[in-house]
């Protein structure tokens, strides 16, 4: 990996540009996309940079074509990604389910804007959180990460590729228009310090290889098109050969494995950031840009004698259930802050089993909760 590919050093980058450079640093060599605010800068940057590093950029006719193209590119051996926003991710949802069923490692970036429908093209929200988890039909698991800065747009895009390769699953970088469009310092480490996961290709011969036979990791080995392996991969329920298998037993065996390869490894996958949670009277839960918005209110509450902690899920899905349950044993109250009308709020409420301990401060997009609102919620819960 040359320095021409990885632009090491300190940069002043917009979040979307940092995301594109994170993809390139992760080894992305195919980007297929369709322009949509506020993610278009990712696509535009990839259009310029990928040809410089020997990759392929394709502008597709729409978001549906973008999603299926990166699935095909991945099966051809590429590290592939796309980027979009709410209306586009809605069109990609069927393909996300297909990628989950075919166990295809791909990365999708959703720079969220306010919805539903066309909504607020140039303004922010965190309204696609539950869609990221449940948007396609059927039982499946994906991984979604939520950056809160241009630096994390770079770092977590690399992490998204690593997780996609490790678990053969679509991974979503769930950003928002503020983080995507803010410009801050981004430090790109040396090539040697960027740890990348290598795709697990089989060493079995074509006559021995079963495309969907998994070991204890529950993740099958891959092959790529053109290597002489005559395989079948499909969105239909399939057996270990990849052939359609229309039975309840086949469905149970396959889908249970698709779910458990993520659930069984949740502790390895989940990343959270915590500040002052161990002896807190109140814990504020916030993610993405809202984890930065809450800081002044937390400081103000502390100055009035309230012990306030911050828990920031960096990994949104799988959700950090275990840690919230652990902390709830001795925390007096919780405040959930997000840019929607209660999405992850209901996940926290479910874990607490007592909504009297939980306050909500939110906004449906295009604006931000004020310091006063957040401070008042903290003080009310602290009572």
What would CATH call the architecture of the largest domain? 3-Layer(aba) Sandwich
- Global Rg: 21 Å
What is the multimeric organization of the chains shown? Answer: single chain
The description of the largest β-sheet is: 8 strands, mixed
Q: Which superfamily, in CATH terms, is the homologous superfamily of the largest domain?
A: Thiamin diphosphate (ThDP)-binding fold, Pyr/PP domains
CATH fold topology of the largest domain: Rossmann fold
Distance between the termini: 56 Å
User: CATH top level of the largest domain?
Assistant: Alpha Beta
Count of folded domains: 2
From the spread of the alpha carbons, the general shape counts as: globular
Overall mean pLDDT score?
96
Low-confidence stretches: none
Structural class: alpha/beta
Helix content: 25-40%
The total strand number stands at: 15
Give the helices and strands as they follow along the chain. Answer: EHEHEHEHEEHEHEHEHHEEHHEEHEHEH
Proportion of residues in extended strands: 15-25%
**Number of continuous helical runs:** 14
Q: What report would you give on this structure?
A:
The chain has helices at residues 15-25, 40-52, 63-75, 86-102, 129-134, 150-167, 177-181, 248-263, 266-269, 290-293, 295-303, 321-328, 344-352, 371-382, and strands at residues 9-14, 30-33, 56-59, 80-84, 106-114, 120-124, 143-145, 170-176, 183-188, 272-275, 282-285, 308-313, 315-317, 333-338, 358-362. It is of the alpha/beta class and 383 residues long. The chain has 2 domains: 9-193, Rossmann fold; 272-382, Rossmann fold. Strands 2, 3, 4, 5, 6, 7, 8 and 13 form an 8-stranded mixed beta sheet that branches. A 5-stranded mixed beta sheet has the order 10-12-11-14-15, with helices on both faces. Strands 1-9 form a two-stranded antiparallel sheet. Helix 1 (15-25) packs parallel to helix 2 (40-52). The radius of gyration is 21 Å and the shape is globular. The relative contact order is 0.12.
């Amino acid at each position: 990996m040359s320095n021409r590919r990885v632009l090491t050093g300190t940069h002043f980058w917009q979040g979307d540009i940092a995301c594109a450079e994170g993809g390139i640093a992760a080894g992305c060599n195919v980007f297929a996309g369709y322009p949509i605010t506020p993610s278009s800068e990712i696509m535009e940057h990839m259009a310029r940079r990928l040809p410089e590093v020997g990759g392929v950029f394709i502008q597709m006719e729409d978001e549906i074509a973008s999603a299926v193209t990166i699935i095909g590119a991945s099966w051809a051996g590429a590290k592939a990604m796309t980027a979009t926003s709410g209306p586009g991710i809605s069109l990609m949802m069927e393909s996300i389910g297909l990628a989950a069923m075919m166990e295809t490692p791909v990365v999708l970036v959703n720079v969220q804007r306010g919805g539903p429908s066309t909504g607020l093209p140039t303004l922010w929200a965190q309204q696609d959180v539950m869609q990221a988890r449940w948007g396609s039909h059927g039982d499946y698991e994906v991984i979604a990460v939520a950056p809160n800065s241009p630096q994390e747009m770079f770092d977590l895009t690399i992490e998204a590729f690593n997780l996609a390769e490790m678990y053969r699953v679509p991974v979503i970088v769930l950003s928002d228009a503020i983080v995507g469009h803010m410009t801050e310092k981004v430090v790109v480490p040396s090539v040697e310090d960027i740890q990348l996961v290598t795709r697990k290709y089989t060493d079995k011969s074509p006559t021995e290889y079963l495309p969907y036979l998994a070991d204890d990791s529950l993740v099958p080995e891959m092959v790529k098109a053109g290597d002489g392996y005559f395989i079948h991969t499909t969105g239909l329920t399939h057996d270990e050969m990849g052939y359609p298998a229309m039975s309840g037993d086949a469905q149970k065996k396959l889908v249970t494995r698709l779910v458990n390869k993520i659930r069984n490894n949740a502790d390895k996958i989940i990343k959270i950031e915590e500040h002052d949670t161990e002896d807190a009277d109140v814990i504020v839960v916030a993610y993405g840009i809202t984890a930065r918005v809450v800081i002044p209110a937390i400081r103000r509450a502390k100055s009035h004698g309230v012990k306030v902690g911050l828990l920031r899920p960096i990994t949104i899905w799988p959700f950090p259930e275990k840690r919230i349950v652990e902390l709830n044993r001795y925390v007096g109250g919780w405040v959930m802050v997000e840019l929607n009308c209660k999405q992850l709020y209901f996940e926290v409420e479910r874990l607490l089993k007592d909504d009297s301990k939980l306050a909500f401060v939110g906004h449906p997009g295009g604006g931000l909760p004020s310091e006063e609102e957040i401070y008042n919620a903290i003080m009310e819960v602290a009572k």
